[in-house]
Amino acid sequence: MTVSHDKEKRHDHDIEAVAPAADQDTLLEVSGIEVVYGGAILAVADVSLTIGNGEIVALLGANGAGKSTVLKAISGLASADRAKVRRGHIRLDGEDILGLAANRLATRGIVHVMEGRHVFSHLTVEENLLTGAFLHRPSRKELQRQLDDVYGWFPRLRDKRRTHAGLASGGEQQMLAIGRALLTQPRLVLLDEPSMGLAPRIVQEIFAIIARLNREKGTAFLLAEQNAALSLAYAQRGYVLDTGRVALEGPAADLAARDDLHRIYLGDAP
Ligand SMILES: Nc1ncnc2c1ncn2[C@@H]1O[C@H](COP(=O)(O)OP(=O)(O)OP(=O)(O)O)[C@@H](O)[C@H]1O
Ligand SMILES: [Mg+2]
Predict the structure, then answer these.
(1) Distance, first Cα to last Cα, the chain
(2) How many CA atoms lie within 13 A of 215 on its CB side?
(3) What does pTM read for this prediction?
(4) Is the model's pLDDT at 2 over the cut of 70?
(5) Taking 50 as the threshold, does the pLDDT of residue 247 lie above it?
(6) Does any ligand 1 atom lie closer than 6 A to the CB of residue 184?
(7) What is the pLDDT of residues 28-49, one digit of tens each?
(8) Which ligand is nearest to the CA of 72?
(9) Residue 89 falls within a domain, yes or no?
């Protein structure tokens, strides 16, 4: 990285500040977090961001920028990777949630769909969905209603409900991972690289469902994606991470219009 790029970045950050959402509209607030793996590897140096109620926010950045680590810090899954948030705050509805276990956070409405479509491959599609449902201990009737709701969003999952998840296609597994997360009745879904390794047509299908979920259920999403054009097309606002820091932030349309986004921050061809 050249010195001139560093200067350009600092300058950009100054002028790109965006007004935070009004307090009652702020669902999640991350302020100044530092995250370290194994007591030694600094993965996130200083990240602040907000997510409004019912908002889609894109979290962009090149490989290793810290996107997944920020998601893990929010969802409480960081500790499973021996990562610790050493500085900063994370607040949900203004209340400190840093240090709460992932299952407690899930009952509060935060769910994390991890990178790489983690499904239980020897369970059927429906059995996988049920693992998400038990959090709120629904009655049998309510459970069926919730399953039908998810099948309504993802008709492909209904068709495959008795198939072992390991035999479902990559796109279906991604839908399954999202569908299972929906069964926890989330207010905020942390979605890590939903497009990874999938054909463009399937990616469009998944993002269209995300947009509908957001519109019709008011579910908020934090989308960690390397595919900037795609996630900025669906997000209202975005943040660009560079080696563990927020390098740029602003309305999605403004970020998408920048011709230096790819060259400087995402480390790929425009
Ligand atoms: N389990 C881990 N143990 C140690 N270091 C890790 C671990 N996971 C990530 N890191 C390091 O933390 C930094 C941030 O990684 P992270 O996975 O958050 O980036 P990312 O933006 O999600 O990248 P990608 O686009 O490749 O998914 C990297 O330097 C990475 O090597
Ligand atoms: Mg990642």
Answers:
(1) 17
(2) 8
(3) 0.89
(4) no
(5) yes
(6) no
(7) 999 999 999 999 999 999 999 9
(8) 1
(9) yes
CATH number at residue 48: 3.40.50.300
The position carrying tokens 């499904």 is 119
Burial of 269 (0-12, 13-18, 19+ CB in 10 A): exposed
**Does residue 224 contact residue 71 with C-beta atoms inside 8 Å?**
yes
Tally the domains of the chain: 1
Average pLDDT over residues 117-134: 91
> What's the gap in Å between 157 CA and the centre of ligand 1?
31
Which single residue is written with the structure tokens 């021996």? 82
Q: Is the Cβ atom of 66 under 6 angstroms away from ligand 1? A: yes
The residue whose CB lies within 8 Å of the most ligand 1 atoms, and thus the one to mutate among 41, 82, 268, is 41
pLDDT given at position 170? 93
Pick from 199, 196, 267, 270: nearest CA to 229: 270
- 221 DSSP β-pair partners: 56, 189
123 in helix, strand or coil? Answer: coil
Determine whether the shortest distance from the Cβ of 61 to ligand 1 is under 6 A: yes
Containing structural domain, residue 70: 24-266
* pLDDT the model gives residue 10: 41
Whether 214 and 54 have beta carbons less than 8 Å apart is answered as yes
CB distance 228 to 262 below 8 Å: yes
Strands (E), the chain: 26-37, 41-52, 56-61, 83-92, 95-96, 110-113, 188-192, 220-225, 237-242, 245-251
- Judge whether 1 lies within some domain: no
Alpha-carbon distance of 137 to 126, in angstroms, equals 16
Closest CA to 258 of 238, 243, 235: 238
